[in-house]
Write a structure and sequence with these properties.
single chain, 9 helices
Length: about 270
């Protein structure tokens, strides 16, 4: 069974056609991704900013060992904001709200490359819009930058981000993309996992898990790009691997087992 399963594992990359980018359904989905990403970044960045006020250099208060209450509040804000953003767009665009999730769906064959490019553009613009509104609303306060904790280098942070993104996309597949959970349960499961990741790794590297989330604040005004590559490479690698593993190993194994059970039942009846 294992050999047959491995023989069926292949990259199912659908390029699509250029007309997909102009399709009204794609544009509606992109608009939904833009708005949802803006809402998520505004809330998540706003929560982080609330605990960064009064601190001009990293680590910010919620990253310090004597202020774990701030980390809990930031994690809760991330969880609730992401759950709401996913719930609002689940039936329109799939509720990605994250370029890494879109990459996982692309490598899993759930979305074509052209549609992915449109999603990525919308998500990045949404992140910039959310950060810009937050900065305007706070009177031009500089948005906080992500920083690596002492003893954590870029490679360590990449592994952390990849691991968190892997779990996040796996949760997307198991709930939202497979539609095994309801319209409330799926976004809640994804949001809770994101919040748990912030609790686990927020004090280490910021627990971004989302390249768009890291992209908006520097564009709007902080202009700090130190270690910025970490928040692209880590989530993209982890999410892409998660989408491939779920689609081509987990589902292939499940289908193989179902086929074998059907064959065994047929053999038993003939006997």
């Amino acid at each position: 069974m294992t050999m047959r399963m491995m023989g069926r594992v292949r990259l199912n990359l659908n390029v699509g056609c250029l007309a997909t980018a102009r399709d009204p359904a794609t544009l509606r989905a992109a608009a939904a991704e833009l708005l949802a990403t803006a809402v998520f970044v505004f809330a998540a960045e706003g929560a982080t900013l609330s605990f960064a006020l009064g601190s001009t250099t990293p680590p910010y208060p919620y990253q310090q060992h004597d202020n774990r209450g701030g980390l809990v509040a930031v994690a809760l804000a991330h969880a609730l904001a992401l759950a709401a953003a996913v719930a609002c767009t689940l039936d329109i665009s799939g509720g990605h709200v994250n370029p890494a999730v879109t990459l996982g769906a692309l490598l899993g064959g759930r979305i074509c490359l052209v549609r992915s490019l449109v999603y990525w553009a919308a998500q990045l613009l949404g992140a910039v819009a959310g950060a810009l509104v937050l900065r305007i609303a706070t009177g031009g306060v500089r948005l906080p930058d992500y920083a690596l904790a002492g003893g954590i280098n870029g490679l360590h942070a990449v592994v952390l981000e990849a691991a968190m993104a892997f779990g996040l996309v796996y949760a997307y597949y198991a709930t939202a993309m497979e539609q095994r959970a309801g319209a409330v349960a799926a976004p809640l499961a994804v949001g809770l996992l994101a919040g748990a990741n912030v609790l686990a790794c927020g004090a280490l590297d910021g627990a971004v898990m989302n390249p768009a989330r890291a992209f908006g604040p520097p564009i709007v005004g902080s202009r700090q790009w130190t270690n910025h590559w970490v928040y692209w490479v880590g989530p993209m690698v982890g999410a892409g691997l998660s989408g491939f593993v779920y689609e081509h190993l987990h589902l292939v194994l499940a289908r193989t087992q179902a086929q074998e059970q059907t064959t065994n039942r047929g053999t038993t009846r003939r006997a």
